[in-house]
Design the sequence.
């Protein structure tokens, strides 16, 4: 159906075809929260929630958890196994693996959250403009097509070598290729809401655009954006690991899980812990994020909730 | 239909030009000097200047861009700054492994993911569904290179079933070809199986709530018929969309997988060319990838009417 | 288990049949023998005169030959040359080519070819450039001999013709050698023991060399680049693998025969393997060092360079870089320990990490907290750890350090940037060189101290420049040792270069290979491959 409305290159129909127009008002928000709390009764959801809380707490209170300086090198005691001084052993520079895993939670969460926020904000802004102002639509979508057509890895390597590896560079390198997807999502929601009779009525009654957008359109993007957000969050942490693997990630001094895994890959057969410890924590975190993301989607999307 | 395709193909031209110009600009703004890479790290400034002159890198950027575009119009992608090999023949040399890896991954993904998604949707909320969904989340949560190393360690080194690395073209026999592709394809498929199984599940669940399914059920159709004949067909549009997006994003995965398994494909060529600032090679590759991406999107859109008769062009 | 037994049985049967056919058809081997080697990087730049990359040099030794060679005693021996004669005034050298030399296209090697090759090489090579200031004429005498006339006697002529690395004086046919020195050659024809197979070449991935059946090796035993280059296999194939673990696994699995450089941390995997030899082939090894940017604060201040040199300790660097003490040792000599010009001056400055002394110097110099930009490559194992250890030591001493990460190629291009660190320049970078190249004041570009014309870092110490010229003119070894000792002292005192220690990188190869030669250059002649 989308394709009929917009026979433009790269259009993905179907993504928002199931969305019902619904506006979220205050009492509804309260009931949504209530429902969300209610889902914690389910075992897996509770476990996911606890894991995520632990990771966030660990990230916040890293210096208090018996860690050493995660950057301090000690070439004399490199590649050690588990010992009382080094709870999870040491890496190739003699840095404490446990401390790096704990501090890595900070970096990986910052990367995940940072990329998600940047992606959603940029995507929402651009998507709303594209969906609402028809004049801008064609140009914006062509630019988005162009960005999506450039392999993200290449873009990332170019960006990182342009400005040097830093958290901000990596965030930009992760965000830019992800934005077009969010833009398309937002735009398709806006488009489908726009064609609803009550919105058309509001338009013909002369309701100003900002009011229309804030009251009727943006709220409809929240549910799909939250779902998309969890995907971006998980993807960002994974992409950061991949970039590190290809030598275009964060500086190796900064302990991120992705960084640790790619540095540890050479020692995989000698000291598998260097990949496994950050890997397990990474997988557990992503698992929790995804489980919670599903829950949020089920609750926010009334149509889906009906069925589960 | 045909005018539509023609219009769509025509619409790719501005996109491609935009990509070409943007990439050209990014590359030339990036610090890095192919001359220094060619001459090695003890070259003097004078030697570097001479090399730059010979390669035309001393000319203003816009002039270089115009010259490159002009040659491109004649179908000439130029030669590698480093080895002097024509870019087109370099791409041709590296096409095989990447194509094999990508196609293998798509086939494996579709064969595994769609049945998994259907089963999960059918057993929605039950133990089987939860198991499949948890596994699929795991697929998202482990980086491709870690999966690759685990596969190499267990299946190649410990069990000796597959070679640890390398590529043999199909012309050297099917078995040597397939044997070297199994692990890379498995490693790369993980993420896509997870993605497409999830989409399949949620699309089918969504469709199952529609009126025509209720009608089919009330007519006494068995659950299997409802699932396979009615639900899957109608859920196909989002599934195909995601597969299309997935293929387009395969490139990143291909780069990593080709590195882990030492496949001499395009993914590795990209990274090598970027690190060596081999501008003509990078530009040629970008154009190729953009074109493939656009083509796949067109293909996906053309497939919609096949699955959903309500869509017409 | 079953499959292993079967495989062994197959090999045995194969071996027997190979031996049988070898006995019956002595000159033709039963099947083509190929050595597959994984080299440290992929071959992309093919011109050994334009590029000093080690892989390009190694490629050069496969397909080209040199007039003179050097053996393991650092003696200069004839290679393509049959002999050379020196006139009484020590100023005219006449070289005569040996019989039977042929280019890979079948044409005979003439003295014209050699003269053209020498001229092109001398334009590009740093030692060659110095040499040419002392040369008045290079001229053809007849088809097989040519002469070099010097303005003043120097031993630099023979030394540079026998130079091991980097940019050895390779000989090419005249039409190829007439390519401008700044332009890469497009035809790859030499007279060396292997032929380049152009149709199989995949830049960065694979290079194939076939045995040059027309090659006439010298009769002396092979030693380094001197002696007979006898090829015993039909084909050598170089592969490059992006991941360090891959070649190690492939070697253990019998998929490849040779790894040029095994990462130190992966050695235990191979050392315990019964089918693999692990051996240091380049006994001279490498030295690693760092450079200060002398143009900009804070390291335009000699005291602060001294402070940094006291702070950084070689033990920590070598532990992080190499780990295994078997393959590393501390060394203060800028011309390398175990080389003719080794000198120990400054060992108390550069070897230990003396943070207190560094702090004291820092105070004396009134360090104002200017951040120090250290370039850190992330993608090359041989150069990644040094900056991290340097940064850690400098921070302990009270320096403010900004560790800038990038890929190695970016470091290579960045290091030539003379701008100030705040405008994208740098203060410190680190790399390594082979000692085969660094053993004298000409091969070793790190001691050049002619300001902005010197190598990255741009130290300006006119005395060193004077000493280098004196070295070129000196023909007496004791005099030369005096000169190099003075250079050593100046290099350390002025902070021209900061030595970080020496290390050797082991190679690993299948036990099917025999006759692998120890040499500073990885060479594939003399190697035999058995089928077992």
Sequence:
């Amino acid at each position: 159906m989308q394709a009929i409305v917009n026979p433009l290159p790269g259009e993905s129909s179907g993504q928002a075809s199931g969305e019902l127009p619904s506006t979220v008002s205050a009492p509804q928000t309260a009931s949504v929260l209530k429902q969300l709390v209610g889902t914690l009764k389910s075992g897996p959801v509770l476990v996911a929630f606890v894991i995520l809380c632990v990771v966030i707490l660990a990230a916040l209170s890293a210096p208090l958890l018996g860690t050493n300086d995660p950057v301090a090198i000690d070439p004399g005691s490199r590649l050690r196994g588990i010992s009382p001084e080094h709870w999870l052993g040491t890496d190739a520079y003699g840095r404490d693996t446990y401390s790096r895993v704990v501090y890595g939670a900070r970096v990986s969460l910052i990367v995940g959250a940072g990329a998600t926020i940047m992606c959603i904000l940029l995507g929402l802004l651009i998507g709303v403009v594209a969906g609402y102002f028809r004049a801008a639509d064609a140009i914006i979508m062509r630019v988005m097509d162009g960005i999506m057509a450039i392999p993200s890895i290449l873009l990332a390597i170019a960006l990182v070598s342009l400005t040097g590896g830093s958290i901000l560079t990596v965030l930009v390198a992760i965000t830019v290729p992800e934005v077009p997807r969010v833009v398309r999502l937002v735009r398709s929601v806006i488009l489908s809401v726009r064609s609803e009779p009550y919105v058309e009525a509001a338009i013909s009654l002369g309701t100003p655009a900002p009011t229309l957008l804030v009251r009727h359109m943006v709220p409809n993007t929240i549910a799909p954006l939250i779902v998309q957000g969890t995907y971006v969050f998980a993807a960002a942490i994974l992409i950061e690991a991949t970039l590190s693997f290809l030598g275009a990630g964060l500086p190796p001094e900064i302990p991120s899980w992705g960084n640790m895994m790619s540095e540890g890959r050479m020692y995989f057969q000698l000291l598998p812990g260097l990949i496994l410890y950050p890997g397990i924590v990474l997988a557990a975190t992503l698992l929790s994020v995804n489980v919670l993301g599903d829950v949020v989607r089920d609750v926010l999307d009334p149509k889906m909730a009906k069925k589960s | 239909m045909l005018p539509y395709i023609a219009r769509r193909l025509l619409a790719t031209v501005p996109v491609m030009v935009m990509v070409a110009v943007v990439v050209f600009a990014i590359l030339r703004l990036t610090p890095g000097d192919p001359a220094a890479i060619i001459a090695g790290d003890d070259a003097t400034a004078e030697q570097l200047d001479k090399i730059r002159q010979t390669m035309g890198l001393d000319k203003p950027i816009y002039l270089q861009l115009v010259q490159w575009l002009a040659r491109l119009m004649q179908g000439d992608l130029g030669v590698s700054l480093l080895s002097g090999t024509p870019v087109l023949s370099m791409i041709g040399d590296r096409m095989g492994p990447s194509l094999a890896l990508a196609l293998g991954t798509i086939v494996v993904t579709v064969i595994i993911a769609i049945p998994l998604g259907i089963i999960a949707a059918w057993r929605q909320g039950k133990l089987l569904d939860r198991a499949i969904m948890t596994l699929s989340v795991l697929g998202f949560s482990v980086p491709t290179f870690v999966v690759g190393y685990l596969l190499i360690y267990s299946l190649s080194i410990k069990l000796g079933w597959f070679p640890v690395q390398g590529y043999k073209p199909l012309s050297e026999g099917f078995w040597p070809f397939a044997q070297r592709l199994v692990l890379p394809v498995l490693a790369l498929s993980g993420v896509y199986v997870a993605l497409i199984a999830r989409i399949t599940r949620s699309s089918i669940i969504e469709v199952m709530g529609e009126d025509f399914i209720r009608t089919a059920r009330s007519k006494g159709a068995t659950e299997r018929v409802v699932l396979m004949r009615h639900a899957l067909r109608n859920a196909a549009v989002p599934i195909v969309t995601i597969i299309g997006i997935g293929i387009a994003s395969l490139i990143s995965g291909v780069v990593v997988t080709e590195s882990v398994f030492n496949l001499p494909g395009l993914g590795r060529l990209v990274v090598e060319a970027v690190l060596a600032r081999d501008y003509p090679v990078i530009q040629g590759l970008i154009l190729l990838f953009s074109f493939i991406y656009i083509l796949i999107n067109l293909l996906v859109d053309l497939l919609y009417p096949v699955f959903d008769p309500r869509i017409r062009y | 288990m079953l499959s292993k037994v079967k495989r062994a049985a197959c090999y045995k049967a194969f071996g027997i049949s190979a031996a049988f056919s070898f006995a019956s058809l002595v000159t033709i081997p039963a099947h083509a023998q190929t050595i597959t080697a994984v080299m440290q990087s992929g071959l992309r730049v093919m011109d050994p005169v334009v590029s000093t990359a080690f892989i390009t040099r190694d490629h050069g030794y496969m397909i080209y030959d040199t007039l003179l060679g050097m053996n393991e005693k650092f003696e200069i021996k004839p290679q393509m040359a049959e002999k050379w004669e020196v006139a009484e005034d020590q100023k005219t050298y006449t070289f005569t080519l040996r019989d039977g030399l042929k280019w890979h296209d079948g044409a005979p090697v003439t003295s014209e070819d050699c003269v053209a090759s020498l001229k092109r090489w001398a334009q590009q090579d740093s030692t060659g450039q110095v040499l040419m200031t002392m040369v008045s004429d290079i001229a053809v005498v007849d088809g097989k001999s040519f002469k070099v006339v010097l303005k003043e006697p120097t031993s630099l002529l023979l030394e540079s013709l026998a130079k091991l690395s980097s940019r050895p004086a390779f000989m090419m046919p005249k039409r190829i050698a007439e390519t401008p020195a700044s332009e890469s050659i497009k035809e790859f024809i030499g007279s060396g023991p292997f032929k380049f197979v152009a149709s199989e070449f995949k830049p960065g991935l694979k290079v194939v060399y076939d045995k040059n059946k027309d090659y006439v090796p010298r009769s002396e035993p092979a030693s380094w680049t001197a002696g007979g280059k006898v090829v015993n296999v039909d084909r050598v194939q170089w592969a490059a693998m992006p991941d360090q673990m891959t070649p190690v696994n492939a070697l253990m699995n019998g998929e490849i025969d040779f790894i040029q450089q095994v990462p130190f941390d992966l050695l235990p995997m191979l050392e315990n393997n019964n089918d693999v030899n692990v051996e240091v082939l380049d006994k001279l090894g490498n030295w690693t060092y760092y450079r200060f940017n002398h143009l900009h604060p804070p390291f335009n201040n000699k005291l602060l360079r001294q402070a940094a040199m006291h702070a950084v300790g070689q033990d920590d660097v070598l532990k992080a870089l190499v780990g295994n003490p078997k393959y590393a040792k501390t060394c203060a000599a800028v011309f390398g320990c175990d080389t003719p010009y080794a000198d120990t001056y400054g060992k108390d400055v550069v070897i230990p990490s003396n943070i207190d002394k560094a702090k004291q110097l820092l105070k004396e110099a009134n360090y104002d907290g200017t951040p120090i930009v250290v370039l850190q490559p992330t993608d090359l194992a041989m150069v990644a750890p040094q900056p991290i250890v340097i940064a850690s030591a400098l921070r302990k001493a009270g320096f403010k350090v900004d560790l800038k990460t990038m890929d190695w190629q970016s470091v290579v291009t960045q290091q030539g940037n003379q701008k100030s660190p705040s405008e994208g320049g740098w203060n410190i970078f680190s790399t390594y060189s082979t000692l085969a190249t660094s053993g004298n004041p000409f091969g070793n570009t790190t001691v050049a101290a002619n300001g902005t014309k010197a190598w990255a870092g741009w130290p300006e110490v006119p005395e060193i420049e004077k000493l280098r010229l004196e070295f070129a003119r000196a023909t007496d070894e004791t005099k030369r040792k005096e000169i190099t000792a003075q250079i050593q002292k100046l290099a350390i005192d002025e902070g021209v270069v900061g030595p970080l220690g020496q290390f050797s990188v082991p190679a690993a190869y299948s036990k099917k290979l025999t006759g692998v030669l120890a040499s500073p250059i990885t060479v594939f002649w003399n190697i035999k491959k058995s089928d077992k």
